Amino acid sequence: MGTVAEPAARGAPGRLDRCGDGDGDRGSGTVHALTLTLVLGVLLVAVLLLAQAGIATHRAGKAADLAALAAADTARGLVAGDPCGTAARVARENGARLEQCSLVEPERVVVDVRTAVALDGPLARFGAACGVSRAGPPEAAGAP
Q1: Can you spell out the DSSP letters for 7-74?
Q2: For residue 4, what pLDDT band results from cuts at 50, 70 and 90?
């Protein structure tokens, strides 16, 4: 009978290399680095969007606080004008929109104010950031 030729072995004599040239993992580091870069980029964008929403919420809260204080001063007679008109002006000057203004207890001069700051970019579909505030004498606001 004839002899069967053995395939050429790489490496140790008598041992067959099943991976071809031995570079089966070549380039996998690049794929892992690109994947890691993509994941970190997505996380960075998510953190930046959350920060933008937080800043808008703080701006709405600040505008609500200042608008409520201005409305309470106007309701007490310290400043001439309409309390809710004053609240709307102060909210607008602070980059917010006045959504609600009401004198809760006119005899004690307690004013409730709600403001909104529009979110930009991809967050716009979630609506506006809102701020709520109440201003008035400490005993009317429930302070001890």
Answers
A1: PPPPSSTT---TTTTS-TTTTHHHHHHHHHHHHHHHHHHHHHHHHHHHHHHHHHHHHHHHHHHHHHHH
A2: low
